[in-house]
Design a protein that fits this description.
Distance between the termini: 55 Å
Number of strands: 15
Oligomer: single chain
Helix content: 10-25%
Strand content: 15-25%
Number of helices: 8
Order of helices and strands: EHEHEHEHEEEEEEEHEHEHEEH
Largest sheet: 7 strands, parallel
Shape: globular
Structural class: alpha/beta
Length: 311
């Protein structure tokens, strides 16, 4: 096999970011194998099998893989990747959790946050919070990389399915036991996949005031994000954070409310197609990247927007 793509999923549904990673893999050649690791994940494997450009799907299905712990996933991927030239995964919490282990097991350097493929050995990736782009060339015999999905379009889903091979052996993880996970339930779109994102910053002054963003988000069908300052202040949970140390988003519309625009935040959203900034400080750095800027009191502007859009 030429390339391996490790699928991100919840044992029921394939995460769309995987389709974008497959697009990146297609630029590295044919013969792409998608690995689906989980438990009772046949539906996910069936979805991956219809992705355009995929040659084969390996479904590693066992109770020990239900929670996709890095201690189990990494040795399995490293073992399956022995004959592969490229190993790819999304640069999400999922991919960042186990891919460094895969690189270490294969004794190669990891290429992180790849945004462009120049040739078989040369890649581009952001550095300095996205203020610079590094062109790197790897001489390793195997390339292990995480892919920034916002830089690639999703591959198409076809009607024909490729073969699915099933394995059930659990590798590694003997000293690790899953205890629990806490998930925030929301009817809104997932932040990294949303077409519209509304993010709030320290200017909202409290978590209670995020309700005015929720009303606008309901009208627009948007996801809600936040700056690190708002998260650190306890206004919203960590999984709302957009930025260098949070989630990377590139929606069609990004509305920044009460966000000054520190470089760490800009690194996570500046690839958005249209950026609207609302801030009372006309010197705020966010206006340097915004397509449209409104200087004024967000507590007056946002409710007015919501009212107008609801008509």
């Amino acid at each position: 096999m030429n390339s391996i793509v490790v699928a991100e999923h919840n044992n029921q549904q394939l995460n769309p970011v995987t389709l974008k990673v497959i697009t990146a893999a297609k630029q590295l050649g044919d013969d792409i194998t998608v690995i689906v690791i989980g438990h009772d994940c046949a539906a996910v494997a069936a979805q991956a099998a219809k992705a355009q450009g995929v040659s084969k799907v390996i479904q590693a299905d066992a109770p020990g893989y239900q929670h996709q712990l890095a201690e189990n996933v990494a040795p399995l991927v490293a073992d399956l990747a022995k004959q592969a030239k490229y190993v790819l995964a999304p640069a999400t919490t999922f991919g960042k959790n186990f891919m460094p282990r895969v690189a270490a097991l294969l004794d190669v350097a990891q290429l992180s946050e790849v945004i462009e493929i120049i040739d078989a050995d040369t890649f581009k990736r952001p550095i300095y919070a996205g203020n610079g782009i590094a062109t790197v060339k790897s001489s390793d015999p195997q390339k292990v990389m995480t892919v920034r999905s916002v830089a690639f379009a999703a591959t198409d889903i076809g009607s024909e399915a490729v073969p699915i091979e099933t394995i059930d052996n659990v590798v590694g993880g003997d000293k690790t036991t899953f205890v629990k996970q806490t998930l925030n339930e929301s009817d809104r779109p997932e932040l990294t996949a949303a077409k519209v994102v509304i993010s709030g910053g320290r200017g909202l002054q409290s978590g209670e005031n995020f309700k005015i963003l929720e009303k606008l988000a309901d009208v627009l069908g948007a996801a809600i994000g936040a700056s690190r300052a708002a998260v650190d202040a306890g206004y919203v949970p960590n999984d709302y954070q957009v930025g260098q140390t949070g989630k990377i988003v590139a929606p069609e519309l990004y509305i920044a409310v009460g966000i000054s625009g520190a470089i760490q935040h800009l690194a996570g959203m500046k690839e958005s197609k249209i950026i609207v900034a609302i801030n009372k400080d006309e010197e705020a750095p966010i206006f340097q990247v915004a397509d449209y800027g409104i200087v004024g009191d967000l507590f007056e502007i946002v409710p007015k927007f919501t009212e107008l859009l609801s008509c």
